[in-house]
Amino acid sequence: MPIEDMVHPFLKFYTAAPQWIKSSIGQLYALAPASLRYGAKYHEFAGEIARSGDLAWLRRRADEKLMDTLRWAIETVPANAALKPALARGDSAAALLAAFPLLTKEDIKADTSRYLSTRMGPETHLMAFTGGSTSVPMKLYLEKYVSRSKDFAYNSTFDEIAGVGRDDIILALRGRTVPGAGRPDGTVWMFDPIKRYLHLSSDHLEPAYMPRYVEALRKWKPTFIHAFPSALVPLARWLKANPAPEVTARIRAIQLFSENIYDYQVDLLKEVFGCPVLLDYGHSERAVKAISAPDDPRYFFWPLYGKVELVDTAGRSIDTPGVLGEIVATGFDNRVMPLIRYRTGDLAMWSAAPNHTRPGFAVVERIEGRLQEFLVCHDHRLVSICTIGAAHFEQLASADRMQFEQTAPGKATLKVLSSTELSKSAREALAAGIHAKTQGGLSVEIVRVDEIRRSVSGKHKLLLQHLDISTYLGAAHLDSDGTA
Hints:
4-stranded mixed beta sheet, disordered C terminus
């Protein structure tokens, strides 16, 4: 039984504790062996990853995992019961997969119980929330003692590819709130000795705070970076204008998560830090996962993590390189809520170039569907919408859709599409959570609406920003509507 799953509910208390407590507890916890922290499943997943260079075995094992997942979903999940005749006929894994209808967030939210396995009791359920970079918040269930162990195994491999060693310190700009960072005498950093993360506040991205960021970098001397692109780019711009070679020269690789990244931003990061920039694609549902390579910026999907497809607007499979389609995911290793042909809302296109980098991996040119968007605080600080979404506020789990709209710094409206009104206590808790998440920079009015319109491209935007973000960000590459 992995300790990580047992102690995870207490993470918020650890994060909020004074630095000396984090240092003391974290240093002791970091001494625990991987088998104790992550459990036996961690080593099982790590073993599969280690064999992925054996192409024949990789393809065979991927087919086995797909068939096992489909069989389990048909036999134990009520929503898939109609496919039992196809399973009885002995259809192939490919034929079975094609028989499943595409699955949307709205399907799951309409009746979550239909997508839960009847053979997995509540004690196996690991509740999670998603909605960080999409406009459809949702509650879902992972498998306790399995899903987190799997992610640790794959994330550890990503670190190995980047070259991270056990003694390296990692600069982390991934939406973590740093307690007290908003106070005049507060620090904008905290250190987690468990992951060796130097967390910098993602809520203070304007130039006035950058000298304090650099002071922390000089003190802790990180050698790698884990970041949301929208949080790291402002720091990189400042370092380009105010060089600190004793800081930037130490960085050996940058790993970016959760958001789309643009070529000019990669060029900026390489120019400032002089190191490879690696990309990660994943989501809270843990259905598919992809990474780039130091010498190949395309996204390579792990074949044993889940099955990836691309479909067009009519739901038809896309096999032709260069054709934009939606990423559809079938996740492995979640017996509690197996997601089959799950529509992610993210867009990509198959690569036409040969895959010599990671044979056997599905490869796409880039992930197109994640926009980098900012809200403006009352003091003109910029906060990424992804940073706010990283909180996965549970008050919105029952909402059909949500959308922020901003017309003035420090104020925004959060529109919630829902059949019922949020209670006063829920609205107050949500507003207080966002206020705290932005270090007191943003006041939000929560309103229920009957409609949230799509954009011209047919997508739902999480943020309607009416302010000229270039005024606050100082970027020369923003469109007239304020998005990158």
